[in-house]
Amino acid sequence: MTDSSSSVESYSSSSESYESSSETSSLKRQRTSTSTTMISSGGTDEKKKLTATLIDLDVIDCSVCFDTLTIPISQCVNGHIVCSTCCTKLKKKCATCSLPILSRNRAMERVLELLRFPCSNAEFGCSEEVIYDERSAHLERCAFAPCTCPFTSCSFTGSYMDLYEHSVDKHLKSLSMFECGNHVYIHLKGGEKVVLKEKTTDERSGGGELVVVECFDTPYARIISVSSIAPNVPGIGLFSYNLKLDSSHCDRLCFGSKVKRVCEVSGELPITHFTLIPLYVCPEYKLKISITRRAY
Predict the structure, then answer these.
(1) Transmembrane ranges (predicted)?
(2) What CATH number is given to the structural domain containing 228?
């Protein structure tokens, strides 16, 4: 009877442990994905590159917070690893076995240093491979960030250069051309937008950047938002604009601001980077806009 009772207790303990493990696994499975990585390998005479498939990204996640491991990586005497942030919060006591966290896992740190992941914008032309925990920083400055066509009836998405070529191929008649420093007359009602394209020597070339002017009406004012469709990359989509109003109700007025860079025009009322014009100042919908390049 003693052996049987001990066996039942052992099974019950194992069952509870399995259920706890299953709950943790179900949470982590939500973040599981597949990626091809580049790993340097070889002897001292020659280093080689080997393409491998990492079928579960959870192996490079902290077992406590599930965030990606970053160097330094700490481990307890049983080999359970945690990130440095969790190590500090746990006061160097392992969350898995409660034993002290006394050392760093140098082998895992070396693996993280060698792992390279393709940019998620690879389908749009980016060929860079980045360290896993630097992916977000890379995406913020990636020149191949997907840009969406500003025309409502079009669903095209591609790199900014592909979008410029697409706008000429598919929407040339709907574009209004502009030259930097020269004024362009536009007529906008509330809820409407005008897509401007920078004029080049060949209007059918893919060169020339896109600028979208949107108008929003509120009970007491008209809001003008000006955006350039471009990634957050130095030298691309950097413009300023000036609006001039010639109204029969008032003298000529001028407004100016920076053009914000976006990858997609939302069509929603802006909360930053806009010009607000009281309705009594500008009852008509005519205005002149001058766009100029800026250094930063």
Answers:
(1) none
(2) 2.60.210.10
